[in-house]
Amino acid sequence: MAESRSSAAPDRKAELRHEHLLDLSTYAADELRHLLDTAQEFRAVLDRPIRQVPTLQGTSVASLFFEPSTRTKLSFSLAAGRLSAETVSLSKSGSSVTKGETLKDTARNVEAMKVDVVILRHSSPGAPHFLARCTDSVIINAGDGAHAHPTQALLDLLTMRAHVDTFEDLQVSIIGDITHSRVARSNVQALTTLGADVTLCGPATMLPVEMEAAMDARTTTRLDAALEGCDIAMALRIQMERQDEGLFPSTREYHQQYGITPDHLRRHPDLLIMHPGPVNRGIELADEVVDHDRAIILSQVTNGVALRMAVLYLMAPQRDDG
User: What is the 3-state secondary structure (H, E, C) of the chain?
Assistant: First the structure.
C-alpha cells in the first residue's frame, strides 16, 4: 500500500462506482473484490511496528453513532487514526438531537464544519440513504436498524477469504435472529454476489420466509440441516432490544435448539465458526466453541480495522495536494 497520498490518490477509486457505502445490494463482484484486496494490503500495515500511514492526512471524518457500539465505533476510530485523518465523534446523548434537532440538521451542521466523511449508525432503516441525499459529504453506513451493515459483511468476507480458496460454491450458514439482523442481510448480498451458497437458519418466528426468494438464500428451521455440508457457520446475537414480544420460550431452549456446541464441532471437523459480536456465551455459542481454535471471531475484530481503513481510503474525497 502506497504511503504517499499524492502517489496513491489519483486512481484509488478507479474500480469503485459508488460515492457512498450505504448497503451492498448494488455493489458488483469486482467492486467487492477491490475492497477486499485493498483491505488485505492494510491488514499488512497493522502487523508493522509502526501502524500509522499519512494516507488521509488532512481528511476529516465524523462518526455519528446514535446506537450503542463497541467494535464498529472503536475500529472506525482506529482506522481513521491509522490513516492520519482528523476525527470527531458524536453520540446521541452528547448531541443536540436530545434538544430536538433533526438528523438532517445535525448532519448539515457537521458538513458546514467541512467534514469530508460521515460515518453513521442509526436505529432507523434508510437513515444513511437519507443523509446521502441531503448532504455533500461521503456517507458510510455503520448500521441502520435491521436493514444493512455493509462494513461488517465486508470484514466477515475478508476473514473468510483467509481460510478458503474461493467464494464460488462456498457453503455458509447464518444462524439465529435473522429477522432483526442487518448483518445477515448484508452478508447474504455480498456472499451471493461472489458466488457463495447461503443458508439462513433460526426459529420460524425469527426467520422471514420471504428472504429465501428475495435474497437468493435457502432457509431452514433445523440447525442440523444448516450445518450439513457447511464450510462456515455464523451465529448471530439474539437482539432482545429489537423485539416487542418474546419470539422463543427461553434462552435455555434456544441454546438447546440453535446453539452451536462442541458436539457440532466433533460432527463437522472442518467447520469454521464466526460471530459478529457481542457473543452471548451459552446462548448462540457454547463457551468451548467461542474459545475453540476453529472459532475465528477475534480475526473478525482485527480484520474490522483493516477493512474500515480500506473503506475510508477508497471512499474519501480525493484532493490535489499540489
Answer: CCCCHHHHHHHCCCCCCCCCECCCCCCCHHHHHHHHHHHHHHHHHCCCCCCCCCCCCCCEEEEEECCCCCHHHHHHHHHHHHCCCEEEEEEHHHCHHHHCCCHHHHHHHHHHCCCCEEEEEECCCCHHHHHHHHCCCEEEEEEECCCECHHHHHHHHHHHHCCCCCCCCCEEEEECCCCCCHHHHHHHHHHHHCCCEEEEECCHHHCCCHHHHHCCCEEECCHHHHHCCCCEEEECCCCHHHCCCCCCCCHHHHHHHHCECHHHHHHCCCCEEECCCCCCECCCECHHHHCCCCECHHHHHHHHHHHHHHHHHHHCCCCCCC
